[in-house]
């Protein structure tokens, strides 16, 4: 029987497509956002320890208590925000699940959800699957900052939710105090919630600080903050994230979460709880990734691309419109096949798929691979 698709315009994600192409071509994969190096060996030893100790059955639905406590401690240390680990912290199977559960918790049929364009590709489908209508607000190019007049104009009586991403993927833009305060002013007298994707919270550069939406008192009462230990500790394949939200929002969030995954891998939670006991393991991350960003950008100076160093995340965008009018998707495929370096065409992040002649590279790779990739990129022929 024919299936009436709930997502008729959605196909296989570009990340899957480009990673497969990179593998098929033996190319250096600077496309999909995962680290090209392993995690700390001590973290692996901790997982083995807890597996051998018999912690291999279901974890509590909301997460292992000590793990939630450590997440709350990290939040207090980094942002000065005190959370109740029992009622405001939920462990989930990856930030994508957190985003979906948060949208599901508050969006009903006919609700409008403001998305900043370009946006990560899971946002709009989550809205649509819950009967909501995505309303796209273009970010300001070339820095991808927020035009708050456009946001104000997009808000209607049907606006239920605004989805935020800082540091931003794909651009790396990091929200400012002014951004947080302006958002709070716009929604303070309205029944609007916020979902904040903060998976790159510990990856910011040049002295910038990530400002979690939790740090604004009004936003804290309206916001689901979604985070990822996969990004922070180089274990994206573990799919472990978390959601921080006030008790009334957490209650609704957990109603959805329990029927999506119910719980997350038990020994991994215990291992991460122990690992979080030493704050330097995440506080040193900006320096670790700044070295890679700087290395990559220094090499890019020897290419024909134009670029501005990313403010955050582990992605660097480059512009080539002054060199060629080739469609970004076609160029990304060609570079993967011809020179052996895979990237992401950022047209896929835009709601209208507009081609701005920009590619996104992931620099969360071994330095030797970055050097090889840069050498190849320096010899591109347009």
Question: Any chance you could write out the topology, listing elements then pairs?
Answer:
Blueprint: H1 14-25, E1 28-29, H2 41-52, H3 65-79, E2 89-92, H4 95-106, E3 112-117, H5 123-129, E4 133-138, H6 148-154, E5 159-165, H7 177-187, E6 193-197, H8 217-220, E7 223-228, H9 229-232, E8 241-244, H10 247-257, H11 266-275, H12 280-283, H13 285-300, E9 315-319, H14 328-338, E10 341-342, E11 344-345, E12 358-362, H15 367-377
Parallel strand pairs: 1-10, 3-4, 3-5, 5-6, 6-7
Antiparallel strand pairs: 2-8, 7-8, 9-12, 11-12
Helix pairs in contact: 1-14, 2-11, 3-11, 4-10, 13-15
Q: Quote the average pLDDT.
A: 96
The level 1 CATH classification of the largest domain is Alpha Beta
**Count of helical stretches:** 15
CATH homology superfamily name of the largest domain: Type I PLP-dependent aspartate aminotransferase-like (Major domain)
Strand order of the largest sheet: 2-8-7-6-5-3-4
Specify the oligomeric state.
single chain
Number of separate structural domains: 2
Our estimate of the beta-strand percent is 5-15%
N- to C-terminal distance:
48 Å
Uncertain segments of ≥5 residues (pLDDT<50)? Answer: none
Global geometry: globular
- From the alpha carbons, calculate the radius of gyration and give it in angstroms: 21 Å
SSE order, one letter for each helix or strand: HEHHEHEHEHEHEHEHEHHHHEHEEEH
- The helix fraction, in percent, is 25-40%
Please state the second-level CATH architecture of the largest domain: 3-Layer(aba) Sandwich
Stated plainly, the CATH topology of the largest domain is called Aspartate Aminotransferase, domain 2
Query: How would you characterize the largest beta sheet?
Result: 7 strands, mixed
Indicate the structural class: alpha/beta
């Amino acid at each position: 029987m024919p299936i009436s698709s709930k997502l008729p315009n959605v196909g296989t994600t570009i990340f899957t497509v480009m990673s497969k192409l990179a593998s098929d071509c033996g190319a250096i994969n600077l496309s999909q956002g995962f680290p090209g190096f392993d995690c700390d060996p001590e973290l692996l030893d901790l997982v083995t320890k807890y597996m051998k100790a018999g912690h291999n059955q279901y974890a509590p639905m909301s997460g292992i208590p000590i793990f939630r406590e450590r997440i709350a401690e990290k939040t207090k240390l980094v942002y000065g925000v005190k959370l109740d680990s029992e009622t405001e912290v939920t462990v989930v199977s990856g930030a994508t699940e957190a985003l979906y559960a948060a949208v599901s918790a508050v969006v009903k049929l006919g609700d409008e959800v403001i998305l900043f364009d370009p946006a990560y590709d899971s946002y709009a489908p989550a809205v649509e699957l819950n009967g909501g209508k995505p309303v796209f607000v273009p970010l300001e190019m070339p820095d991808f900052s927020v035009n708050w007049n456009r946001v104000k104009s997009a808000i209607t009586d049907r606006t239920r939710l605004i989805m935020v991403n800082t540091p931003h993927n794909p651009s790396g833009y990091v929200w400012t105090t002014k951004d947080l305060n302006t958002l709070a002013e716009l929604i303070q007298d309205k029944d609007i919630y916020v979902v904040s994707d903060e998976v790159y919270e510990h990856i910011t550069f040049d002295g910038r600080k990530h400002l979690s939406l939790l740090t604004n008192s009004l936003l804290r009462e309206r916001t689901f903050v979604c985070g990822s230990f996969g990004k922070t500790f180089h274990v994206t394949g573990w799919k472990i994230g978390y959601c921080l939200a006030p008790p009334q929002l957490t209650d609704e969030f957990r109603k959805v979460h329990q029927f999506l995954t119910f719980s997350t891998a038990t020994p991994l939670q215990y291992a991460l709880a122990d690992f979080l006991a030493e704050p330097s393991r995440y506080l040193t991350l900006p320096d670790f990734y700044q070295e890679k960003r700087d290395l990559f950008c220094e090499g890019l100076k020897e290419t024909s691309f134009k670029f501005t160093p990313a403010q955050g995340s582990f992605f660097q965008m480059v512009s080539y419109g002054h060199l060629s009018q080739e469609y970004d998707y076609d160029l990304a495929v060609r570079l993967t096949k011809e020179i052996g370096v895979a990237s992401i065409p950022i047209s896929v992040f835009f709601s209208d798929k507009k081609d701005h002649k920009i590619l996104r590279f992931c620099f969360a790779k071994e330095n030797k691979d970055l050097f090889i990739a840069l050498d190849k990129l320096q010899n591109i022929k347009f």
